[in-house]
Specification:
The structure is a homodimer. By secondary structure, chain A is of the alpha/beta class. Chain A is built from eleven helices and ten strands. In chain A, 54% of the residues are buried.
Chain lengths: 305, 305
């Protein structure tokens, strides 16, 4: 993939479950088809918004196969392969390679509140997984509990051929992205915004070329990115301010449960079931989300009707 | 199991790897046989000291089967089944039940630095896993990042039949154990000390009846517990003070790598290989550990010679 490819809107696919807790495979395919119709530039699977922390290894493998096969090259697929063990992350990456997946996403090695890869261990893990030969997006997310200093990210970009993209979703993401892009130059081929797009406009101003939001409203987010990259920053900002109340509600009141609520409302999937210990989204919050999203009428709200 | 059973020394078995990173199944059996010869009162598998965070789901299942089958009832086996997903912890517990395993150990639901089960979610997860019908030891360890208040632990002990044992290895463990035992009374059937025994004597004074150390020197730790429980606290304290330099070195300089270094030196296993990103124990630290442990000549240092 060339530099020019890492642009636009590459949302995370949620993982639908049946009301009995099983993975809803048909629902998963419909989520993907809906996302293709949203004209996304890529689809990320098994991310935190996909509830990867509630899946077994076997379910991850099933979903990796199902999603890459069902997307069938219509858009690039980014598969999350994070694990504390480098060997396990490596094996997950090898499966993606075998299946023809286009990209990997990885957090640094972490487990629980205390096991945190050092800069050296993090570099080594990415270098090892890089040997598989699939483009890697580094995910700089608070869930890992690991601070990734910009000099480490630049070293990874320069010295590990496959490390090309960086999704920055730590606190004060824009400031970090700006330094990363300024100091990393051409080695930072894909600087990405994340976290539902709650910092999208500041991240675009800081140099982000891509966005990884949820799949709730990528049809509304993508023009913001493309207009900004096309030099029309005022139009971009106006659209961003227009959808910000919805993104804010998603990010602060719902988290990863929002997209499935909207996709269920829009007939994309049959259930917005949450696996324990995650409770269902509280009824009033759910209603608030649906009422708010109706003002915007995104594709996910109409797709299955 | 009756109340009287939750006494003595129930160490964690380390998970041996071959130099190529694979699980050393024959080595695992030898670890278990060595531990039986150490006259342990029980064996805990897949704990943090067993490097559970570096194992795949499939490897966990292989080790669960292998260990329970190889122990073959010689001592009770405690199998760790922690997972953020309640369904996955439940399925792991069901496997233990099918195999005839005697006990389960679980941390509260956690993932990474930020996903932390609330008291309600934690209670519900233990209640669900309790339905399997195997005795549960609650592991109160800093790795989860979750504070477990004493009233929650007592509620779990009173309302979830299978929750009987509590391994307290948070900061100031003894103070917590004392309140737990005093306020929980007979519902706290097995109050346990943990973390390599670094707080063992204070924990015994606080009411611990059992200890879950590593498998490095349980032959030296068990008499400390039994003497204390038998009313001979001075003898217990003298022995504790005698081995404390070694426990301190293990706990603060080596962590979960110590037992495999000693067991390799003692011919129990062939390799003390660490899976990436965990580095090998630094050579001088390794030598320091071996020199120190030679002063005590525990079974693990002689077993395979």
């Amino acid at each position: 993939m060339a530099n020019d490819d890492f642009k636009g809107c590459w949302p995370v696919a949620p993982t639908p479950f049946k009301p009995n807790g099983e993975i809803d495979k048909e629902g998963m395919k419909r989520v993907i088809d809906c996302m293709v119709d949203q004209q996304v530039d890529g689809i990320c699977i098994l991310a935190n918004y996909s509830e990867q922390f509630l899946l077994s290894d076997e379910e991850r493998e099933i979903l990796t196969r199902l999603c890459i096969e069902h997307v069938d090259g219509r858009v690039p697929v980014i598969t999350t392969v994070s694990h504390f063990s480098t060997d396990i992350a490596f094996l997950r990456a090898k499966l993606v390679k075998e299946l023809g997946g286009e990209m990997l996403m990885m957090m640094p090695p972490y487990h629980g509140a205390l096991m945190k890869g050092s800069p050296q261990q993090t570099f080594e893990q990415f270098a090892k997984v890089g040997e598989v030969g699939v483009t890697i997006m580094v995910q700089d997310a608070p869930l890992s509990g690991i601070d990734l200093p910009v000099p480490l990210l630049i070293k990874m970009a320069k010295e590990i051929e496959m490390v090309k993209c960086f999704k920055i979703e730590c606190a004060q993401a824009a400031a970090k992205l700006r330094v990363l892009v300024n100091e990393g130059g051409d080695f930072i081929e894909g600087p990405f915004d994340g976290e539902e797009g709650i910092t999208l406009f500041a991240d675009l101003e800081a140099g982000a070329t891509g966005n990884m939001s949820s799949a709730m409203i990528p049809d509304l987010i993508r023009p913001i990115v493309l207009d900004y990259l096309g030099g029309n920053s005022q139009k971009s900002e106006n659209q961003y301010n227009h959808i910000l109340p919805l993104i804010n509600y998603e990010n602060r009141q719902c988290g990863f449960r929002a997209t499935k609520v909207v996709m269920k409302e829009g007939g994309v999937i049959n259930s917005d079931f949450c696996r324990h210990p995650i409770p269902d989204l509280e009824e009033n919050t759910k209603k608030g989300l649906i009422n708010l999203v109706k003002n915007y009428n995104p594709i996910a709200l109409q797709w299955g009707k």
